[in-house]
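Before going further, learn to read the protein records used in this course. The integers have meaning only within a learned vocabulary of local backbone shapes. The record below shows the convention in full.
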Amino acid sequence: MAVIKPFRGMRFDTEKAGELKTLCCPPYDIISEEQRRAFIAENEYNVIRLELPREGEDVYARAGEVLDLWRSKGILIHEDRPAVYIYEMEFNAYNKRKAVKGIIARVKVEEFSKGVILPHEFTLSKAKTDRLNLMKATNCNFSQIYALYMDEAHTTLDTIDALSKGDADYAFTDDDHITHRLWVITDEAVLAKLTADFADRKLYIADGHHRYETALNYRDYCRANGISKEGDAQDYQMMYLVDMEHPGLVVFPTHRLVRDLKNFDKHKVLDGCEEYFEIEKFSSAGNINAVLGEKYRAGKKAFAFYCGKGEWYLLTLKDIEVMAKVLPDVSEASQQLDVSVLHSLILEKTMGIDRENMANQINLTYTKFFEEAIMGVDKGDFQCSFILNPTRVTEIRDVAAAGEKMPQKSTYFYPKMITGMVMNDIGVD
């Protein structure tokens, strides 16, 4: 079902542009303005000038001009032959050194309704408008969408593991101690094999929903304006494809912090939770992760309700069957998500924070950092926080397969892919 194909990736010529480490950057949406300026100060050719333009009156047009200049100067060059790129990230998580590996290829974008490529989270319009304007000005993907696929026999993973036993063609370790490695695969027989592997697969978007929906909008824009026709390169988006059962996959939870809620009273919250949750009090935040981890391994739905100065309450759902009554219009997969339980039974029902409030982040702030969820309350910036367990990859798959989406900020795949190792210049076949 999924159509993938190799492409002549656009890469930096490091002899002209400098060390690869100084040319790449993290995803644009987690970079502060201070960080953006620091990247450019270190190397004027950093990809951030293309991916997150801030120069000139029309920042998007300026990005297009910079792109043209870099191509003309040979700062950016294209692969001699179509390729698929094996990309590996080696990183630290949960006190272990782990690695996740997949392939970067062009993937034909399809409407979600076709059931070939499936989303799992809701998106915001502002981010999609920004990305669309950038694509109109550059006709490029500077970063890739992260997607998962099912392969019980792991045939594709076996292939790419065999192809990447030797040293990578390009590699560096960033300031977060994440090592990025890239192998360029141009063997036509191998490319044909990898392309055929995906003929009967669906893809599940892990990260990059905004960019995927933007790719659909850009394709339609190009067709409507005579820039492209069906089957042209504008029908394809650069994506990173990873086996859903890869041992290196890591999903961090996204914790919720509550602020500025009128008449907040922790005792009222606890009273409201008694009907659905078993409640246990603790006096030190040091054991939150250990206690929640135990509940996670046991398959329980549990949260830490943190009130400050070490005081927290373990909330363990008594009976999952209640969710069928609370959310009767969604699938069992959606009903049983930890975030669904938290949002429906605690934030909405007990605390009065409705879905519109959550979507607009009126009384909620989100963080993947446990320390921030604790310190924010201790310092008085927030009234309380809810510490969650991570969403399981199989839950993401099941919700997407049901044609549904999780609430925003349900997952945080770690680590984030680096931007700039390879790019998709749509005008180059």
In short: The mean pLDDT is 95.
